Amino acid sequence: MDVGLIGLGNMGSGIAKSLLRAGHRVTVYNRTTARAQALQGQGAIVATTIEEASRPGIVLTMLSEDAALESVVFGDAGILQSLPTGGVHVSLSTISVAFSDRLAAAHSRAGQEYLAAPVFGRPEAAEGAKLAVVAAGPGKAMERCKPLFEAMGPKLLVIGEKPPLANVVKLTGNFLIANVLESLAEAIAFARKSGVDAVKLLDFLTSTLFNAPVYKTYGGLIVEGKHEPAGFALPLGLK
């Protein structure tokens, strides 16, 4: 499939690589061109404008928050002006429910489709095609974009036809992850200060009551002291 991708941070770059490996023709755009050019050797087409990235008729965005996405969509020569009639904008970002609703209404008025499809997973999961995608939006657009979602990871949840529903799911997940991180860090710190081997503790916990990826992944990072660089920094989590 031909697809545009705007936003090549750690997550966007990883997703671009997964799409390219799956055989999709990906046109990438980033404000700083170095990140886009780094993907050129892997087969990506580098766009110099948002309009060029929107030409394929399906454009994915992976941007940090509402304000960044608002500029790309509603700005001069942005997605809203550039995406052809019948085109699909898929927001992979963690954005507010209200802004997602606004995007759906704006694209509908422009004769375009909008899907919200935020993802769960760290940058290495994005690059390894191991993301979990939560998607919502009109059925025909969803079917059109499913091959793209399937290239990003093994798990796709289609939660409904109203795009903001996907953002609700993403925000509930982020809330739970934040609580897990805090409680897990406190538990490991308490155990260590009390003389308990943190590696053995984590192995026991994650093979019994807490056998879940969030405990295994973040628990391993905490035990090993790998706190930097953060895959999802606190200011982004506060969204």
Please give the count of helices: 12
CATH class of the largest domain: Alpha Beta
Shape from CA axes? elongated
Average predicted confidence as pLDDT: 95
User: So, the CATH homologous superfamily of the largest domain?
Assistant: NAD(P)-binding Rossmann-like Domain
Taken as a percent bin, the fraction of beta residues is: 15-25%
| CATH fold name of the largest domain | Rossmann fold
Topology pattern, helix = H, strand = E: EHEHEHEHHEHEEHEHEHHHH
Distance separating the two termini: 32 Å
Beta strand count: 9
Integer tally of domains: 2
Helix content: 40-55%
> What structural class do helix, strand and pairing data support?
alpha/beta
Task: Throw out a few tags for this protein.
239 residues, alpha/beta, Rossmann fold, N-(1-d-carboxylethyl)-l-norvaline Dehydrogenase, domain 2, 6-stranded parallel β-sheet, 3-stranded mixed β-sheet, 52% helix
